[in-house]
Design brief:
There is one protein chain. The protein is α+β, with helices and mostly antiparallel strands and about 200 residues long. The chain has 3 helices and 9 strands, in the order αβαβββββββαβ. The chain has helices spanning about 1-45, 60-65, 180-185; strands at about 55, 85-95, 100-105, 110-120, 125-130, 140-145, 155-160, 165-170, 190-195. A hairpin with a 4-residue loop joins β4 (about 110-120) and β5. The protein is globular and about 75 Å long. The chain starts with a helix and ends with a strand. The model has no long low-confidence stretch (mean pLDDT about 80).
Length: about 200
């Protein structure tokens, strides 16, 4: 009888461990990006919350002095960033109402990268930038799962596996004197709904 109770306990504990592992595996990617979503949408970085489907560009001033006092309630998400040679461009995209158009300017050979992340799995599913698409100007249509519309002429489609996308862009800054020029380029990276 004692041996049978031991097996029952072992089966219960084993089932609990497997269930906990599956739950952690499923939820951990979402939980890892939750602070970014909260920091972007609820608190913002410098000037308050950043609306869905818009991009925030780290100011040249914040880049030069990352310890600048931010307004009360602002997120320090980017102010103490580890990259001291790139300006950040960030945003949260919601594709439930239709595709979004990502436009990047001609960077004139300047390194930049726009990373598109699926927040449900914390995986990067596409990059636009110097290493993947070059430094010339470009227009990219970010579409959600199941979208069946027509991609307008001159745009390249990027299919998202999820209806939500975390955008994390970086634009190279050579030195502090270059920060305003880099900001001018980064500010031209934009998101807009597909017209039509």
């Amino acid at each position: 009888m004692t041996l049978q109770i031991g097996y029952v306990h072992l089966i219960i504990v084993g089932a609990f461990v497997v269930a906990a592992w599956l739950l952690a595996t499923y939820l951990s990617p979402r939980l890892m990006l939750l602070p970014y979503k909260r920091g972007i949408l609820n608190q913002g970085i410098e000037n308050g919350p950043i609306p869905v489907n818009t991009l925030y560009v780290q100011s040249a001033e914040l880049f030069v002095n990352p310890f600048t006092a931010l307004p009360a309630g602002s997120s320090k998400l980017l102010s103490y960033g580890t990259n001291r040679d790139t300006l950040y461009v960030v945003g949260w995209v919601d594709l439930s109402k239709g595709p979004q158009v990502l436009t990047v300017p001609d960077m004139g050979g300047r390194y930049y990268s726009v990373q598109l992340t699926d927040p449900s799995k914390n995986t990067n599913f596409s990059y636009v930038g110097t290493r993947t698409t070059g430094s010339a100007a470009g227009t990219y249509l970010i579409t959600g799962p199941g979208w069946t519309g027509q991609v307008p002429s001159g745009m390249r489609q990027i299919s998202s596996p999820n209806g939500a996308v975390l955008v994390a862009g970086r634009v190279f800054v050579q030195d502090y004197a270059d920060a305003p020029a880099a900001y001018g380029m980064a500010a031209q990276v934009t998101l807009a709904p597909l017209a039509g």
